[in-house]
Specification:
There is one protein chain. The chain folds into three domains: about 5-200 and about 365-450, Metallo-beta-lactamase, Chain A; about 205-355, Rossmann fold; about 460-560, Ubiquitin-like (UB roll) (Roll). The two termini are about 55 Å apart. Helix 4 packs antiparallel against helix 8 (about 255-265) and helix 11 crosses helix 12. Strands 1, 2, 3, 5, 6, 7, 19, 20 and 21 form a nine-stranded mixed sheet that branches. The protein has a six-stranded mixed sheet with strand order 8-9-10-11-12-18. It has 15 helices and 28 strands. By secondary structure, it is α/β, with parallel strands linked by helices.
């Protein structure tokens, strides 16, 4: 008798944060450990990652972490996971190289962890199952699908793939292996859903090539290309087109430079050393106005837009954009970057540059469309289809697609994070259990979770600002040593609100007198009373809710008491 379970701690009903688990007779294989980038309303939050408390409680059952490719949505949460579950990690050469760089960035020594480069021609054997990797087509080199091979059939993990045939050797799909899985028997296909609402096949990059060539041909001055640093295939395409017309290249962007250095070292990116230009800082003698150079401005999420704004406003140390320049935007806005993108376009239009904005429809899709998903069904012939990787409407769209293809509805479970699909002897159970799952908001590093209270306080600060009430007292002698100092930031202009300030001072004096009259000063009640009464007064007076922070300094004990 065998039991196989599948569940997700992230990646279902959302875009990113992919972390899926296949459990075979209690041995757990983790498929990817990614992060999700926050929307604009999560102020100061850099990333959202899965809560891996459940896996930490069962870390002795985890046999390995198997990575599909080198994007943040697949590997971004690995530093957090390895701190709690130090299991062996498996991936292709490029993926593991980027993982090592990611660990260095998070001040973790890669040598302390078991990071294994896989041979896609071999299987990795465990007590209850085997794991095999197969090459897939995506926008980074050596992207892989993963198959967990069990006695009841294979569980095939197919995320972030297309079947585009116009790609280089490092991006080609292994159709032979996919067909072999289908012949040997596939119990369940875990298939990505991000493109399930796009009808047809995911197209090649012919439109992108035409756009790049036309832009380069029409440019009279310098050419500046803005891109996302993780899109290695697109970066290589720009490099190739620039070299064809005799241009040199300059890479601007810390992460892109690291990715390109890795790619060059491993042979995934081809760029002659004599065609690379290292820019010097701008000064009176150096303007970096090279007409024979294509400047690649790269970064993650908002970074290309931010750098272009600095260049347009003359603040950047390497490049200053002028009206003579052509700017090619190969980084259409993604969730959370729409506002900064709009401001960037406005700044560039104001300068009078020739701005070429490339729509998402022109860029080669990185996700399987409806016909690609159906082709995957045909190759693998899975008994069950489980939609993964996408917001709920995309999961449901693939569920509908599978039913249209011919699957009975009971063989296409559309589930949420934490919901457990169980197969007993190769048969899906109708009842689903659950495991604990949640999200962790990361601010800067993985050392601590930024909880909802902190995010709410940041929201208040962004909307209504804060008010400091700073005062000195002598607690032993029961003396107010000065009038309170009122400091406002982002709330009101002090000189125009003298009556409000006087009322806040009156509230402070009344509460202080009440505390002085008591036998003992209750510091908690003292500070909370000031905070609450001032906040109530300000809301009645202004209909706004600034964060009120009383700071009471006892000069006798030299103790500072603060409420946050």
């Amino acid at each position: 008798m065998s039991q196989i379970k599948f569940y997700a701690l992230g990646g279902l009903g959302e875009n990113g944060k992919n972390l899926y688990c296949v459990e075979v007779d209690r041995q757990i294989a983790i498929l990817d450990a990614g992060l999700k980038h926050p929307s604009g309303d999560l102020l100061g939050i850099d990333a959202i990652v899965p809560d891996i408390s459940y896996l930490a409680s069962r870390k002795s059952d985890v046999v390995g972490v198997f990575l599909s490719h080198a994007h943040d949505k697949a590997i971004g949460a690995l530093p957090l996971l390895l701190q709690e579950v130090p299991a062996p990690v498996y991936g292709t050469g490029f993926t593991i190289a980027v993982v090592k760089d990611l660990l260095h960035e998070n001040k973790m020594d890669p040598e302390k962890y078991s990071l294994n480069v896989v041979d896609r021609d071999k299987t990795i054997d465990f007590a209850r199952f085997k794991v095999a990797f197969h090459s897939t087509t995506h926008s980074v080199p050596e992207s892989s699908g993963i198959a967990v091979l069990t006695h009841d059939g294979a569980i095939v993990y197919a995320t972030d793939f297309t079947f585009d045939q116009n790609v280089g050797a490092f991006y080609q799909t292994d159709f032979t292996k996919l067909s072999k899985y289908g012949e040997q028997g596939v119990l369940a296909l875990l298939c990505e859903s991000s493109g399930a609402l796009t009808v047809g096949h995911s197209t090649s990059d012919i439109n992108l090539i035409r756009t790049i060539r036309d832009t380069f041909a029409d440019a009279a001055g310098r050419i500046i290309v803005a891109m996302y640093s993780t899109e290695i295939a697109h970066i290589q395409r720009v490099i190739d087109e620039a070299l064809k017309i005799g241009k040199k290249l300059s890479i601007i962007g810390r992460k892109a430079q690291r990715m390109i250095d890795l790619g060059e070292t491993m042979g995934y990116i081809r760029i002659p050393k004599d065609k690379l230009v290292n820019l010097k800082y701008l000064d009176e003698e150096n303007t970096n106005e090279f007409s024979d150079v294509v400047f690649l401005v790269t970064g993650e999420r908002h970074e290309p837009f931010f750098m272009l704004q600095r260049m347009a406003k003359g603040f950047d140390r390497l490049l200053r954009i002028t009206a003579k320049d052509t700017v090619l935007m190969l980084c259409p806005p993604i969730v959370g970057t729409e506002k900064i993108a709009a401001k960037t376009y406005d700044a560039l239009y104001r300068l009078g540059v020739k701005l070429v904005r490339v729509d998402k429809k022109v860029l080669p899709p990185s996700h399987a469309s409806t016909e690609d998903i159906k082709l995957m069904y045909t190759l693998l012939k899975p008994k069950y289809v489980i939609p993964i990787n996408g917001e709920y409407r995309y999961l449901q769209a693939q569920g509908d697609l599978a039913i249209e293809y011919g699957y009975p509805i009971e063989n296409v479970p559309v589930i949420d994070n934490g919901e457990v699909v169980t197969f007993e002897n190769g048969v899906l159970e109708l009842k689903h259990d659950t495991v604990m799952n949640a999200s962790i908001m990361v601010d800067g590093n993985f050392d601590a979770d930024v909880n909802d209270v902190v995010v709410k306080e940041r929201e208040f600060l962004s909307q209504d600002g804060f008010l400091l009430i700073i005062a000195n007292i002598d607690a032993r002698e029961r003396l107010m040593l000065n009038e309170p100092e009122i400091v406002s930031r982002g709330f009101m202009y002090m000189k125009d609100n003298e009556e409000v300030i006087k009322q806040i001072e009156l509230i402070y004096r009344n509460i202080t007198a009440k505390q002085f009259a008591a036998k003992y000063i209750d510091w908690r009640v003292y500070k909370e009373s000031i905070r609450d009464q001032v906040a109530d007064y300000l809301f009645k007076e202004t209909k706004r809710k600034p964060v009120v922070i009383p700071i009471i300094i006892d000069t006798q004990s030299d103790k500072i008491c603060k409420v946050l």
